[in-house]
Design brief:
By secondary structure, the protein is α/β, with parallel strands linked by helices. Helices cover 35% and strands 18% of the residues. It has ten helices and eight strands. α8 links the parallel β7 and β8.
Length: 289
């Protein structure tokens, strides 16, 4: 977060949640802050829940929302399951949906709001299609129905290439030009720490298995409100991609975020919060109506 940092503990609590997930015993790292309407935040491919620290530290948000973010297995502080070295990690649509629903059930969340970015923004569309009754609202950051690979994904997991550096290098161009320097480099540091093959495994969902182009028109926003927020400079999910979604999804509400790229919540936290706060205020107002 840009600017002077006050000394002392932040109001963010991190714990490990033990549960059976995707047919395996898992130890999932979960952070949360605040009270009220549950708001579950989904990180991007190859990164982790640190991307949402600014949301968790915003007193205006945490006064009305219980903000929760978890590291998916293989990511951040969530280790891979036992025996991970015997198989290739590849994220699928079904596994991703099952993971979200299982975590929500394990935490006894009553119709949470789900906010996801990039792969998280894609799975938000899947949830809107298949499980709208489970959620109060859905917020997609950098949501697109499909993304074609624009580089050779094999470079993301090769023995002759430094995995962390190539992953952060590839995503560096996705950050908006006006991002504060400290936040830009912190976002890239998260990518530098990813495990071998994890980013590539996430992109299997993003570029192959999670194609929703033929289904998004079936989303019924009367069952669950859908908000789409997209950075102006994102070339993985462009503003035009989001406008096309809004054209095909009746009732979807969109905002194009000036100056931002693919990682708005971490690359420009204060700028992003200026767009997120009105959305959350509307959700909270609807809850009280």
């Amino acid at each position: 977060m840009t600017g002077a940092v006050e000394s002392g503990f932040e109001p963010v609590v991190g714990r490990y949640l033990k549960l059976d997930l995707l047919g395996r015993s898992q130890r999932l790292y979960v952070e949360e802050a605040g009270e009220g309407i549950p708001l579950v935040c989904l990180h991007t491919a190859g990164s982790d829940s640190r991307q949402y620290r600014a949301v968790m530290n915003d007193a205006g948000i945490t006064e009305k929302f219980r903000v929760i973010a978890f590291d998916m297995p293989w990511h951040g502080k969530s280790s891979p399951p036992s025996g991970w070295h015997r198989f290739e990690y590849r994220l699928t649509s079904q596994d991703y949906v099952d993971m979200i629903l299982t975590v929500c059930d394990a935490l006894s969340l009553d119709r949470p709001v789900i906010m996801g970015c990039s792969i998280g923004g894609r799975i938000v569309l899947q949830l809107a299609l298949d499980y709208p009754e489970r959620f109060r609202a859905l917020i997609g950051l950098q949501s697109g129905a499909h993304a074609e690979p624009y580089y050779d994904l094999q470079w993301l997991h090769r023995p002759d290439v430094h995995g962390g550096e190539v992953c952060s290098g590839i995503v560096s161009g996705l950050i908006g030009p006006s991002a504060p320097e400290d936040d830009r480099w912190e976002t890239l540091w998260h990518y530098s720490q990813g495990g071998p093959g994890v980013f590539r495994g996430d992109l299997y969902f993003y570029t192959v298995d999670g194609d929703l182009r033929d289904r998004v028109a079936d989303i019924d926003t009367s069952l669950c409100p859908l908000y789409l927020l997209t950075g102006e400079y994102d070339y993985s999910c462009t503003p035009d991609d989001t406008r096309e979604l809004a054209r095909r999804i009746d009732g979807a509400q969109i905002s194009i975020m000036d100056g931002m790229g693919h990682f708005p919540m971490s690359e420009d936290p204060e700028g992003f919060l200026s767009y997120l706060r009105p959305v959350l205020a509307g959700i909270a107002a609807d809850e009280q109506a």
